Amino acid sequence: MMSSRTFRKGSFAALAMTAALVVSGCSSDSGSESTSSATGGAEGGSDANLAITFLPKNLGNAYFDTSNAGGAEAIEEFGGTYAEVGPAEAAPDAQVSYINTLTQQGVGAIAVSANDPEAICDALNEARDNDVKVVTFDSDTNTDCRDVFINQATSEGIAQVQVDLIAEQIGDEGQIAILSATANATNQNAWIELMEGILAEEHPNIELVDVVYGDDDDQTSFDKTAALLQTYPDLKGIVSPTTVGIAAAARYLSTSEYQGEVAITGLGTPNQMRSYIEDGTSAGFALWNPADLGYLAAYASKALIEGEITGAEGDTFEAGKLGEYTVEADGVVLLGDPYVFDADNIGDFDF
Ligand code: RAM
Question: Do 119 and 208 lie in a common domain?
């Protein structure tokens, strides 16, 4: 169904030269609700209910296409059934109806990236009462609404790398703004809070003038970029901690008078950012491997379904090619470290 050669835990850079992710067969249509499924070829060898459904923040986001393709790859490996459902827009409670349907269908696990830490909690806990395991990945809920959270990297690490990048790109002084995803997103809000603290502590000459929200929608993010540049004529840089936002902002900057004058960094996918690195619009950005994130979420789902782990601290499980992982405090499983992409290495990546 697909092939991938990705990055092992803790050694993202080491395998950079061989990184090639071919994502196929698992994407969804953009714009509206959709379902796609693929059944694994191998037999699971147990009567466990290995029907695992991925529920991204919204459909039509290349980041989730890649993470969910990683999930599908894992599920195929262990002989489960993969599906993906999701809303068109990343609204706080847009995922509730999908969770309710999956509960009625009696899936084995839901792997969800939450649009809101609270809004989907009741639905998730009802699912859990009905023997559905709940794995959050990418963006968490409150800890009492899920069994484990697959965290892409520590929030501190993700905040630090973005502050380091913008400070370097603007010469450590001047006005910057943040173009985020949705106002309720658990992950972006955690990173922004930490970035504000690091800026205040380590970069007294950088002024964060605004935080705006593009809702993980390309056009809204594009328009918010234009508005920022108009409102703050002295702006020196934009940090966008979302793959949708950074690509839209870079696209705007790339054909504007601000190209090369106003820095753009944050979190992006190499394929969406490649042309903006090559034309000098962006000097560099960060991310982790989304395919590995989905792959790990799928194996954690399997371990929960089969009763190998409960989500308690110290639980361990095998995650295929990624090796063994341990559940940390609060049911968190850590994938690895963020990685910086720039003109020197972007040609080595294809996702
Ligand atoms: C977007 C989403 C996702 C986030 C990435 C960096 O694709 O908001 O949740 O982790 O950006």
Answer: no
The structure tokens listed for 253 are 């900057």
Q: What is the DSSP string of 221-248?
A: HHHHHHHHHHH-TTEEEEEE-SHHHHHH
> What is the CA(240)–ligand 1 centre distance, in A?
10
Domain count, the chain: 2
Helices 186-202 and 155-169 pack at an angle, to 10 degrees, of 50
Which residue puts its alpha carbon closest to atom 8 of ligand 1? 242
* CATH number for the domain harbouring residue 309: 3.40.50.2300
Is pLDDT of 19 > 80? Answer: no
Ligand 1, atom nearest to 290 Cα: 10
Cβ atoms within 10 Å of 336's Cβ, excluding its own: 22
| Burial category of 67 from C-beta neighbours within 10 Å (exposed 0-12, middle 13-18, buried 19 and up) | buried
> Range of 246's domain?
155-287
State in Å: Cα 43 to ligand 1 middle. Answer: 33
Question: What is the value of pTM for the model shown?
Answer: 0.90
* 215 and 111 within one domain: no
For residues 162 and 122, state if they share a domain: no
pLDDT of 106: 98
Q: Over 70: is that where the pLDDT of 285 sits?
A: yes
> What is the structure's pLDDT at 18?
32
Q: How far is the centre of ligand 1, averaged over its atoms, from the C-alpha of 48 (Å)? A: 31
Tell me which of 134 and 32 has the higher pLDDT: 134
